[in-house]
Amino acid sequence: MDGIFGLIAAVSLIGWIATRYSIWCLPFLVSVAILAEDDCYPLSFFPMYSDPDESENYLFVATWETDPTQYHAIPIEEATGLSAPKVKKMWKSYSRDFADDLKKKDTELTDEETNEISGVLLREFRKVAANKGKELPENLALVEVWIEATDIGGWTETPEVLGTISPSTNASTTEAPSAVAQ
Amino acid sequence: MFEKLNSLLATVRQNPLVARIVELPFWSRASKRLRPIAKQFDGPRHFRFEIVFMRVLLAVVVFQSMPLGAPFSNGSQRLANQLAPGKLDAILADPAKDNALRPPLLPISQMLPNSGASMTYQNQDKANGLAHLIDLTFFSDPKFQKALPWIVIPCLLLYAAGIGLPVVLPILTFVSIGSRTLYNSQGYIHHGYQMLSLVLVAQTVVVLWHCFRGSWREAFGITKAELVHGRTFWDRMIRYSQWMVVGCYVIAGVIKPVRSDGEWFQHSHYIGIQVVKTHRQNYYSRLEEKWDIPEPEVAKVMMKDHPDLTRIFLSCGVMLEIFAFLALYSRFLSLVIGFSLVIFHYFNDLMMGLYFYDNEKLDWIFLINLPFWIWWLWKWLRRTVPQEQEVGEVEPAAV
Questions:
Q1: Which partner from A12, A70, A147, B299 sits 20 to 30 angstroms from B25, CA to CA?
Q2: Beta-ladder partners of A165
Q3: Within the 222-261 window of chain B, which residues sit less than 8 Å (CB to CB) from chain A?
Q4: How far apart, in whole angstroms, are the C-alpha atoms of residue A109 and residue A118?
Q5: What is the per-residue pLDDT across B225-246, written as a single tens digit (0 to 9) for each?
Q6: Per the structure, how many domains does chain A have?
Q7: Number of domains into which chain B is organized
Q8: With an 8 Å Cβ cutoff, is B103 touching chain A?
Q9: Which residues, 6 or more positions from A179, have their beta carbon under 8 angstroms from its beta carbon?
Q10: A96 within some domain
C-alpha cells in the first residue's frame, strides 16, 4: 500500500508543477499524510475509528490497599491532566518502543515485560502529577479492560491488572477475577 | 529548482513517445473535458470584505490555540466578571446554557477569545516530527512563556490587518507547530490542531512563494494585490487553506477502508464498541457520574437494535469525508458540504462525546463563509424587491 501512495504522491506533485492546478495538492496531501502516519505533526492519518472490530480496550489508573485485585479507580485527569484516552495512547507508545528495543511485536510482550512497562508509566504519572503540585496515592495499578461484542448484539467487559507499583514492592501482575457481562 | 523541473517536464513532453501518447484521441478528449473542471477547483475571486473577515476570524482561532496561559487563557471571564459579575461563569458552568446555540454554532465557551493553557512539559521522550530535530521544551520555559504573548499577539494583529505576512506567518506557523509537536511528543497524539497548523503552513508557503516569485510589496501589504491569471495571491491563499481543511477530511475518510482492508462498511456497527469505550474513558478520566452509564443507549442501538441502519448512517458520514473535496467546486457546494460537516461534528459529539471544535471553526470560516452569503442574500433581496420609479424617469421602451 505504501508503494501505491508513494506513486500517487509523486504523480500528483509532477501534475501540480506541470499544470499549476491547485487540485493536485489534494492527492499529494492525502498520500503524504497516510505515509507519514502519526509521526510527523502536523501531518496525520487520523486513525481514530478506522478499523472497527468486535473488540476494543481501554485503560485506567487505580489505587489499592493490601490486595491489588481489590482496586478502585482514581480520577487521573484531576491530578495529572492526562485523560484516560491519553493513558491508553501513552501505554501503546511505551509498549511499542519497549517491544522495538527487544526486536519483537508489542503483542508478543510477556507478563513480566508488560508489568515493567506499567511500572515505568505509573511512575511517569506520579512525576507529571508532582510537576502540577499534586500527589497520587502510594499504591497504583494500571488496569486494562477488554470490551468484546457478543453474538446476541451485546458486549462483555473483562478487566485485567497490567501492573502495579507500591513503596515496598516494585511491581506485580495480577489477573482480575471476573468478567462483567452486559 | 522549479524552473529546472519545468524545463525537464518540457523535455519529457517533447519525447516522441510521450508526444504520441499525449496526441492520442482519448487523451486529448479527456484533458479537454477535465481542464475546465480542474480550473473550476482553482476557486472564485473573493471580495475584499471576505478576505478581511477570514483573516480576522482565523487570527482569533489561532489565538485560541496558542499556549499563552494566564491571563490570556481566562481573559474573557475576567473581563466579563468586571462588567457583569458571575453572569458568564454561570453560563459556562451549566452545560445546557453553554450549548444553547449548539447546533449549529459552537458551545459559548469555545467562542470566547481565550488562549490555550501554557505548556508544562519538561521533556520530549516520545519525539514526534520537528522534535526529532529541535528540543522544543523551551515552550515550557517560564521566561519564554513570559515573552511569547509579546511575539504572538503583535503577529496576530498584523496578520488580521494583512501587513507583513512574509514575516508574521512563519512565526505563527512555527509557534503553532512547535508547541503542538511538544504536546504530541509526550507519548500520546492529539488530533485537534493538525488542520489549523496545516492551514497556517499552506498560507505561509503561498505568501513566501508570492514574496520571492511574485511581488514582495504585495505580500507585505504595501501595495494592492494585482490579478495574475484571474486571481490575486489572497485568492490563492484562501484556496490552499480550503484544500488543507477538506484534505484533512479526505484523509480521515480514505484511511478507513484502507486500514480495515475494505471491511469498514461491513464492520461499522462495531463503532458501538467504541462508543462504550469512549463512555468508559470519559468516566475514568474524572470519575464523573454523568458518564457512569452501564449500557450506553447509542451503543445498544448500534449493536443490538439497528445494526443495518447504523451501517448506512455511518457510511454516509465516511462518504461525506471522502467527497468533502467537492466543496471546493463552487461556493454553493462549499456552503452545503461545510454545513454538513458541522452537523457531522455535532453528531460525533452527541453520540461519542468526541469533539473537534477547531475543525468546526475552520469549516465556518473557510467553507460556510457566512459574510459572503449574508452579502449575497442582501443583494438578492434588493433585486427582488421592485424599486419605486422616480418622478420624471422614463422607461427606455416608452420613448
A1: A12
A2: A140
A3: 236, 239-240, 243-244, 246-248, 250-252, 254-256, 258-260
A4: 12
A5: 888 888 899 999 999 999 999 9
A6: 2
A7: 2
A8: no
A9: A156, A157, A158, A159
A10: yes
